[in-house]
């Protein structure tokens, strides 16, 4: 019997960048712990979704974007094989997004930047050129299932599962 491959991918990003939306788009059965907030919702614990493709089980965790939930991000990040930094391409890059990018570089975790909300006229993806070192940057809309699946699966294909002993890729 062929061995099953398992990957853990964690999505980081500032408040309202679209992390929960992306996970809902790629997995209709995904789970979310959210609270009401200013006419919408905000993640107060985590999001969890799954994709299964060619014998590979990809577990995707979304983190809370509010800065005060740092402790939750640290717990969710434990043992991740790769990370996606989701950035709202309709606004300027903020300090918190820079902090997340620096932390992921320091943790030496493979990560990719998704510039989100590129479906909208207000998106300006060009302004992010050179903002994330050598990390790959991809334009997406978290509301477009095909785009999100392609982007996540292509990234997952570049990852090697880690030994999940709880000591890898922490402190983001
Ligand atoms: N037009 C457009 N709107 C989007 C897109 N992705 C997310 N949104 C909207 O952006 C808002 C915030 O989306 P969420 O998915 O809740 O953002 P989040 O990153 O999970 O936010 P926190 O959990 O609070 O950090 C919602 O109103 C979404 O509908 C997108 O690709 N295009
Ligand atoms: Mg959320």
Short description:
23% of the residues lie in helices and 31% in strands. The chain has 172 residues and is α/β, with parallel strands linked by helices. It has a single domain, classed as Rossmann fold (3-Layer(aba) Sandwich), CATH 3.40.50.300.
How would you describe the overall organization of this protein?
The chain has a single domain (5-156), classed as P-loop containing nucleotide triphosphate hydrolases (Rossmann fold, 3-Layer(aba) Sandwich), CATH 3.40.50. Helix content is 23%, strand content 31%. It contains four helices and seven strands, in the order E-H-E-E-E-H-E-H-E-E-H. The chain has helices at residues 19-26, 70-77, 95-106, 145-156, and strands spanning 5-13, 31-37, 40-53, 56-62, 82-88, 111-116, 137-139. The chain has a seven-stranded mixed sheet with strand order 2-3-4-1-5-6-7, with helices on both faces. Helix 3 (95-106) links the parallel strand 5 and strand 6. The longest helix is centred in the middle third of the chain and has 12 residues, at 95-106. It is globular. The model has no long low-confidence stretch (mean pLDDT 93).
């Amino acid at each position: 019997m062929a061995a099953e491959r398992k990957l853990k991918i964690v999505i980081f990003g500032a408040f309202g960048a679209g992390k929960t939306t992306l996970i809902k788009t790629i997995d209709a059965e995904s789970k979310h712990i959210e609270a009401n907030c200013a006419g919408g919702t905000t993640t107060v614990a985590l999001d969890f979704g799954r994709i299964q493709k060619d014998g590979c089980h990809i577990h995707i965790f979304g983190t809370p974007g509010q800065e005060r939930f740092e402790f939750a991000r640290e717990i969710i990040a434990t043992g991740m094989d790769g990370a996606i930094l989701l950035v709202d391409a309709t606004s300027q890059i903020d300090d918190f997004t820079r902090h997340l990018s620096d932390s992921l570089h320091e943790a030496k975790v493979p990560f990719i930047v998704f510039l989100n909300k590129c479906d909208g006229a207000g998106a300006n993806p060009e302004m992010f050129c050179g903002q994330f070192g050598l990390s790959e940057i991809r334009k997406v809309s978290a509301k477009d299932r095909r785009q999100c699946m392609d982007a996540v699966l292509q990234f997952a294909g570049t990852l090697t599962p880690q030994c999940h002993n709880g000591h890898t890729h922490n402190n983001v």
